[in-house]
Fold this sequence. Notes:
- Helices cover 32% and strands 20% of the residues.
- The chain is an alpha+beta fold.
- 42% of the residues are buried.
- One iron/sulfur cluster binds next to α7.
Amino acid sequence: MELYREKETCCGCGACADICPVGAIHMAMDEEGFRYPEIDEKTCIKCGKCASACPMKGKRAEKAKNSYLGVRAKDRKLRLASSSGGMFPLLADYVLRQQGVVCGAAYDGDMRVVHREARDRQELDALKRTKYVQSDLTGVYRRIRRHLEEGRWVLFCGTPCQAHALRLFLGKAYPKLILADLVCYGAPSPGIWASYVRSLERKQGGKMTAFSFRDKRAGDNGHTCAYVAAGKEYAGSLNADLFCRMYFTDHIIRPSCHACGYCSVDRDSDFTLGDFWGLGKVRPDMDDGFGTSMVILHTEQARKIWEEVKGEADWFPCRREDVLQPRLQTPTKAAAGRAQFMNLYRRLPFPLFLKWFWLKQTWAGAWRRLTGGRGGK
Ligand SMILES: Cc1cc2nc3c(=O)[nH]c(=O)nc-3n(C[C@H](O)[C@H](O)[C@H](O)COP(=O)(O)OP(=O)(O)OC[C@H]3O[C@@H](n4cnc5c(N)ncnc54)[C@H](O)[C@@H]3O)c2cc1C
Ligand code: SF4
Ligand code: SF4
Ligand code: SF4
């Protein structure tokens, strides 16, 4: 059984491992820190279920009758605790009111990013906010199917490939399932994230217990990054954080993301959520620095639920052209120096590797300033 040949054709969603009836697949980390399935051929009974759940092989969404919105939660606390305008917590609140289950990305005790469930507002807090690390969905697909079979409402929020994988895994429509996917720049390496967390813990002399990639305290639309280690908080610019630098300079994104088939406004989900880029041009009066969500409603289910939650939001309808940011059109390109970067990541002790990257970035910045913008990353 072969699930993928080139790394570009596996997004690491883990649906194949969850659907295998005999437990023949486990997800293993490669040298770049990304998870890929490995099949135990001796256990495999060649049933083909793994391939049927694979989003990289499944049919993509047809053109849907989309509605485009700008949304921000009226409750300022919800917006402050979220990365964009707080559309996710508004949807989550609707599902919790139905005694349903919300599934989204959170940190575990070791700061690994994993999808987990919330059944009340307190548990929901951990699921809010963007974590720029590919999340682990081991066991999640099966648990969601169980909840749906029991007749519960379920909201799943994740990357488009994860949401598509869930739909394929389930194999049939469930009226109480709400799928929300994100506009997606690409999934950063969980292995490199783990090394980064350990390096900050060494530097600050204690365990990391929180990391916010999109902190809004400065009213800068979440361009502040903050973490807590050894009980002390550190905050700075998103661009100055080295992990974020590696991400936004396109060095640590999964190979499949550079060939992503979901860079479109048409999706397999009910809702697509993102940041409202270019809000200042469309609705300058709403651009207060605390985030506004870009929301696409794809299905009748989404339009029905929107009617239930819109009273909790300040919002406006808009056009497709207003929301068309780059990641709704084309995949992120890999950095020109990605291969060299990964080569050094494999060979150097991590603190030395970080120093090399910092020097390279500092030099590139100085060169850009010297040459008035010319020069490489
Ligand atoms: C890796 C990544 C890249 C993104 N790239 C873009 C982009 O290029 N342009 C853009 O407009 N928006 C992007 N987003 C989406 C954006 O950052 C917000 O997550 C989104 O707008 C929802 O914000 P909110 O205020 O509604 O809710 P929030 O409270 O911020 O909710 C965040 C939701 O995102 C989910 N989530 C968080 N981290 C992850 C993760 N690692 N994997 C899967 N799901 C996760 C959580 O489950 C939660 O449900 C990206 C998000 C991620 C995770
Ligand atoms: S073919 Fe069936 S048994 Fe074999 S790995 Fe795939 S799901 Fe498991
Ligand atoms: S189901 Fe997901 S993890 Fe498995 S081969 Fe396909 S893309 Fe990779
Ligand atoms: S960029 Fe595409 S392939 Fe990568 S995580 Fe996002 S949706 Fe999945």
